[in-house]
Structures are given as structure tokens and as C-alpha cells.
Design goal:
314 residues, 9 strands
């Protein structure tokens, strides 16, 4: 098995990974190629490398996270980094400390890379201007979630062999979803045709300007699609009434075997998690290994984040 060597790291032309919009197609493809090399490593008996030995990684999560936080934690440790995950609920931030004060404190510890998830759009960009190390955006507000889009792309390539020419549907709460935005940017960049599907109340105005076709009819939007990405309802970001009821939402926009028949015969299902079963997706579909890529997304997420840490941790 070929193991990526420390001397062969692909360096990005940018110091930080703040969003897909900041990446060129060359940089995106380099991250995906680097990540491919870690898939077999993560499936082997010996998973530990020393590529980042002596480097310090700080995970700074201001929002609850299971998949992303544990994935970055594991990725850093498998590369040999010293990983510190800050418990924000017990930190000085809960006592009134600002993000900038925290940035100054962390900077004094001389980290090599900071992974940040924050409820405010633009927080990673602001942090990157105040520290002397690389910053990776693990999700900021409603803006972007670049590593999620990259792991979704790797998952599709791993199963379909390509993205260019595929027809991809992104369904659900488009308005509040940073996952949707990053995937729209990346899938368009890599040559896919992208449909977005959802109720009018959860669809951004003028979304077509992002290079997608929008639908409020699930059946029309799924027509001949190769990939169906379902999104979680972002209830924590909704202020006011966006939906009559979850039951009605499921009837019109939840993915069921009946609705999936309108997609391509070999269509595959994705979901960034956590899933609201019986609201966004039928339980049987979510667990059907013949069509669901949910578990594979989790697995390949570690490989993608290892690639990002290797590339950006100078």
C-alpha cells in the first residue's frame, strides 16, 4: 500500500481553507487527489503517520458537532499532530470573551493550524486575519462548509468515477444550508448539472444566479438525477414560520422510494447528517446500502480532512 510521504505534500497557493469560493478548480482537484491516497490507509491495520509530527492543531467549535469535530480530531491524530479540542461551553467565551480575545490567546500558544466552526458567517475569515497560522473553516453560519462539499465530491467520485456530466439534486432547506452553498459551488466547478429542490419559503431568492435550476416540485426536480443530496432542516436558524408542519414537509419534500423512482435507475442518496428520519428521508432508504452513501460519506470525511490538514498545515 502506497503511503503519502511528508516530502510529497501538495501545497495550496492559499494559506487558509475558508470556502469553496476561494478555491480554484486546480486546488479543489488536488485536495481530492490527496484524499484518495488516505482511503486505503484508513482501511488498513496501521493508520498512524508522522506527517504532522511536532505540529499543533486546535479544534475550536462554537456549535455542536459530532461528525465534523470527531473527523477532524481523528484526522489530525492519524497524521501525528498534537490535537487540542477546545470545549467552548466551559471556556472564557462563555464568560464574555470575544472571538478576537480568543484569537490572541490561541495565537500565543503558537498553533500551526486552527479548525473553526462558528455560528456567524465570516468568523473563520476574521480569525484568519488575527492569527499567524493556517485556518480551516469547519462551517460558518449559513455561508460555507467547504470540507463537507469536498467529502461529498470524493464520495461521488469513489462510486461514480466522476462528477463531470452528472446530474445532481440538492433537496430541502436550501435557504439556511451552508452545505448546499458549498456543494453548489463545487459541483458546478467540477462540471455537474445541479438542481435545487425545496419549498419557496426555504429557497433563496434569485438562487438561479448560482448556476442551478430551482424546483418546488420534487418529482420534476429529481427527473433523471444521478445523485440525490438531502439536507437537514436547519430549525435552529429559522426565525418565524417556514413550514406548516413536519408531516406536510415529508409528504411533499421528504425522500421516499416513490419519489426516488423519478431519478435515474442507479441514483444514489446522500445526506450530511444528522438525519431527521421520517421528515427529510425515509428510514428504509437511509439504511439501504444499495442506494445510500451516508456511511461512506462519514468514512471518506476523515480522508478529506487528513488531506486538508496535510496541505494547509505548513
Amino acid at each position: 500500500m502506497a503511503v503519502p510521504k511528508k516530502t510529497s505534500a501538495i501545497k495550496s497557493t492559499s494559506q487558509h481553507l475558508l470556502g469553496i469560493q476561494n478555491l480554484s478548480i486546480i486546488e479543489s482537484k488536488k485536495i481530492l487527489e490527496e484524499a484518495k491516497a488516505f482511503i486505503s490507509l484508513n482501511r488498513s491495520a496501521s493508520k498512524k503517520l508522522d506527517i504532522l509530527r511536532g505540529k499543533t492543531q486546535i479544534n475550536l467549535f462554537f456549535e455542536p458537532s459530532t461528525r465534523t469535530q470527531s473527523s477532524f480530531d481523528l484526522a489530525g491524530k492519524r497524521l501525528g499532530a498534537d490535537v487540542m479540542t477546545m470545549n467552548v461551553s466551559n471556556s472564557a467565551l462563555k464568560k464574555g470573551e470575544t472571538l478576537m480575545d480568543t484569537a490572541m490567546t490561541l495565537n500565543a500558544m503558537h498553533p500551526d493550524i486552527i479548525v473553526i466552526r462558528h455560528q456567524d458567517s465570516g468568523a473563520p475569515n476574521l480569525l484568519s486575519q488575527k492569527v499567524n497560522c493556517a485556518v480551516i473553516n469547519a462551517g460558518d453560519g449559513q455561508r460555507e462548509h467547504p470540507t463537507q462539499a469536498l467529502l461529498d465530491a470524493l464520495t461521488i467520485i469513489n462510486r461514480k468515477g466522476k462528477i463531470e456530466g452528472l446530474k445532481i439534486a440538492i433537496c430541502g432547506d436550501i435557504l439556511h444550508s451552508r452545505v448546499a452553498r458549498s456543494n453548489i459551488y463545487l459541483m458546478n466547478m467540477l462540471g455537474a448539472e445541479v438542481n435545487v429542490i425545496g419549498p419557496k419559503t426555504l429557497m433563496p431568492s434569485s438562487v438561479e444566479r448560482l448556476g442551478v435550476k430551482s424546483f418546488t416540485d420534487m418529482k420534476k426536480g429529481l427527473d433523471k438525477c444521478d445523485i440525490v443530496m438531502m439536507l437537514r432542516l436547519q430549525n435552529e436558524r429559522m426565525q418565524g414560520t417556514f413550514l406548516p408542519s413536519k408531516r406536510e414537509y415529508y409528504e411533499f419534500f421528504g425522500l421516499t422510494p416513490e419519489k426516488l423512482r423519478f431519478a435515474s435507475k442507479d441514483a444514489l442518496i446522500m445526506h450530511p447528517g444528522p438525519m431527521n428520519r421520517g421528515v427529510e428521508i425515509d428510514t428504509k432508504l437511509a439504511d439501504d446500502i444499495n442506494v445510500s452513501l451516508v456511511k461512506e460519506q462519514v468514512e471518506l470525511g476523515v480522508a478529506v480532512r487528513m488531506a486538508c490538514l496535510k496541505i494547509y498545515c505548513k
